[in-house]
Design a protein that fits this description.
heterodimer, A: mainly beta, AttH-like fold, 2 domains, 9-stranded antiparallel β-sheet, 8-stranded antiparallel β-sheet, 4% helix, globular, B: alpha+beta, 12% strand
Chain lengths: 348, 190
Amino acid sequence: MKRSEHLLYLMEDVRIPMHDPHAPIDWKQWYHFVLIHPPTGFRLLANVSLSGIPGNGQVIVTVLIVDPATDSQSEKTYGFCNDWEWETGMVKRVPIRTEAPGFRCVIDGGNSIFEVEDKNSLIKLKFSGKAKTDPVLIPEFSPFGSGFIGWGLLPSVEISGMLEIGNRQIQIDSDWYCYHDQNYGRFHWGEDLGWIWFVINSRSDSGPELSLVLHRGNNRNQTNCGAPHLFIYEDNKLRKMFMGNAIRLTWHWNTIPTHPPRLPGVMAPLFSDKTQCQPLGMELYAEDEKDSISLFLESTSLTELILADNQQRQYTFIEEMTGKATVEAHLSDQLHQKSGYFYAEFVQ
Amino acid sequence: MPNSYSDPAEFLADLLTRLIELLREQGGYTWDLLLKATLGRTGIIQLDGHQLELSAETNLPYCLHIKKIEAPAEQPDFISRGSDLLAILQGRSSLDREIVENRIILRAPLPDLLNIYQVLLNILADTPVNNQLRVLYREWESHWPYLETPTSPIALDKQIPEFGLYIRKIPYEIRVMEGFVKNGNGNQEA
């Protein structure tokens, strides 16, 4: 366990040089939490992002909630994005503590707290988490745009808390799945860079719980792609990893451009007339000499997050896609057929 | 509203003056657009019932006179509520949607409207690279006395303006027959 705790602190560490007033302001670091409630299909993203340096940067908090369809309502998406000038003292390093009006996030190795309230969207989210597995670190050895990116993932966090949307109160308990990752690097939003990333959680009454995480770096139109990594976790333990040419990924697109909903923020009204084709889903197949897996992700919601560079007028459009996933895995001659939900991001 | 102001109109006038000075200091494309849109023009704006007259001199250097109107004009050139402007600034709505749904009313010749629209969008585009703009918005949001909190949560798909409200009142079958709607594979409304 000592090694695990060490890795957790290493993964979460704030990489931005916060005490160097001359540090470049293209530094970025963000802490993602993805929450999925398999019994109902709620999907939720909570994120705190640091951009620049103290005194010349921003602290940005984002919450996106996909409220699943029921007999009486269609699927709905709620969310907000709040940003503050990054003042000295707002972020502390050990333990990592970020505070702003109506917001607090503390990450102390494998223990985390995320609390935020936004009066304009009437959303209040509060949860605490505890790591259930070892993290995986993918450091910054490869170039990314004009700089680099590194990240670490923690695919299973035990959480409890409360989500409020207006007058609705939704208990967050052990039925919820929580994925966490942390990203850091130096690059400019708006460069020809991007990624595809998703997390799937699939459970059934019998057999193990499978969680799958994909990451692939690529340019915006996905014609220049890095090696993808697919991590397969079985009951919170890393069971298998596919990478590179072992993975084949196929998109299915709607050919009619539409207006996606956009995560609130000052960029949303700027691009309110921009339309785009949206994916219907994605297929992924991976195999090696021993195992194989096929996934189908059916998109039921897509929300666009627009990120602006802080030095030039240029933008990155990140699509937040969620929906249902089916998984068919042959692992060591055992067949697992499952369904569940996914949360994905890709850049256009 | 800060105690140093006698009323909201005075506070608003000060914020607008500071906005102009920020844009002047920044220079570049947005400043050029502002000059093109406003030099030699006069307009009356109304926010939450408070009216200001804005009058830009014809010659450079650029000088914008802002004064409170004591006897309210019957037809201001711009009418809005602070809560609706805040919804745009925070991305919960769009400028298009607020105009389409009559929460923002603009009166001007079409070329002037297009120029003003471009100025507003470019000020939004400058926000990520000019922290002072963000500070100014937050000061207005913190102190403007008329901002209302929504009473129920609003789903994000409500951001998107709904154009063609009148034509949508015609039954779908008739729109298909008249060619307003692509039938079959596309299902896209014209």
